[in-house]
Each structure stands twice: as structure tokens, then as C-alpha cells.
């Protein structure tokens, strides 16, 4: 395995880490040489940061920041063009009665619905993301995975969310996973690549750290916790480990990569806990939709209700926003 076996168009591994990807043995040594994760420590720190209290103007800022980081998503077998158009309308104007409400970061759909989302969002600055590579299980051939990506990119997707082969990873076939991510990254062209680790299936924090570094080494622009189809999905401790990875990546290479927790984040209180973690673990620079996203459509509803509460001084029920 080398950095050039997948495709000549794949991004080169940054020089400080080039030896790590020279061959399968080097990659294994590097990944298993990463510091182990202190399970008690990371869980205690996550719990501690989760108790931080944010009030008044700072809370409104946090709510607006979280809204701007949402990837508004529909990934169901019953999705229709009409449902996607309705979702894009909400993405553009999350609270039509409050024109100052921020737009979301992106709308995420299956590849066959990308064109509809692109047409509906033209000129808005909202990205169109598409899952691909046999989402959510990823149990298909590389040829089909690449074809899946091509469908999305040809239809105009700005971002592609791929799933790694968890079976290969858990069996220690790191080179296979590395090369597949590289091939998908090359197939994305100008589209950004989010690499879904499906952390709920990785079993340990050490595996989450290894998978995070593997995805970064292979060229992922974002590392993402989950498909939202497996429980547990995103958790604060897992997100801490991933934030540590992108922070350490930046310190090693000078490059900025993003993190996206997805699944199970439903309340404003939850979102604020994640924003505190972003600030404390990775740094203030990551408090931007360019480097941090929420894959949690139901979260948007609570953010909008809490935004009204902050502005009006009293709680607004779900009748005042469009509830998905």
C-alpha cells in the first residue's frame, strides 16, 4: 500500500506523516503507536464541560452558531422530490417569521435527489451534501461505491459523506480502508469529503482515535461520527476524541480538518455542550460551519424554539415552527 496506489489524483499525505503511509506495516505501526485514550479521563472531561452554563447574549450567539452548523438531512427510503424541496425551503428560511434567523450549512440527501436540492438552493450559499458509498452499511464493491459518488458529484453535490468499511477496519485491514478513502476523495473532485466512522460499531475510544487518524491521513476533509442509523450515534466523549485528532493533525501538519457529530443530538442544551467541547478541545477556530457541523435535523426545531424564547422572553410551543 502506498499513497499513490488508489489513484494518481488522490491527495498526497502531508510530509510529516509520509512514512506512516509508506506501506501496510508502516500504517499499522503508526496507528497502533498513537497514545491510548484514557476512558475515565475523557468521559469525566466530557461530563465536566457539559455542565458549563451559558446565559443571555452568549446563549443567543450559541443558538445562532449551532443553527448555522446544521446539515438538514433526510435519508429515508420514502424520500420524494417534494420532501426535498420542503426541506430546502426550511434550510433557506428556518423561521420565516424571524428573517434574522441564520441559514443552515447544508442539506443532505441521497444521490438521486441531489439535483432537486441543487436546483432549489441555487444562489443561497447553502451546500448540498450527499451520502454515498453504499450508505449506511457500505457493504458493496468499490466500483459501486465510486459510481455512487459519481452520481452525486455529477448532479452538483458540494459535499460527499462516505462510510468506511468497518469490517475491514476491525479486522485490521487498514491499508484497504486507507486506499478506499483516497479513491473516494479523488472521485469527489472539488467536493469536500466527510468520512463517516460509525463510532458506535468501533467499540473502543482507541479504535475511534485510530479511525480518525486513518481518515485524516487518507485525505478526509471532515471526520464524522455516525450514519444516524446505528446506536449509539454521536456522544460527547467520542466527539472529544475526534476533536483531539483534528487539533493534533493541525499541530502536526498545519492543515485544518473538520468534525461532524451526527445522530442523537436533539436539544439546544445538547448542542451547546458540543460547542463548549469544540472551543475547549480543538479551539475557537473550529466554531464555524466550515470546520464543525451537526448532523441532526430534529435539533433545528428545538434551536428555533429556544431562539424565540431568548428573543421574546417566553417559551414558544412547536406550533410556531415547522416541526419535522
UniProtKB/TrEMBL annotation:
Protein name per Swiss-Prot or TrEMBL: Deoxyribose-phosphate aldolase
InterPro entries: Aldolase_TIM, DeoC, DeoC/FbaB/LacD_aldolase
Pfam families: DeoC
Coiled-coil annotated residue ranges, if any: none
Stated family: Belongs to the DeoC/FbaB aldolase family. DeoC type 2 subfamily.
GO molecular function, one term: deoxyribose-phosphate aldolase activity
GO BP field: carbohydrate catabolic process; deoxyribonucleotide catabolic process
A GO cellular component entry from the record: cytoplasm
Record-listed E.C. numbers: 4.1.2.4
SMART domains: DeoC (SM01133)
Domain of life: Bacteria
Gene3D superfamilies: Aldolase class I
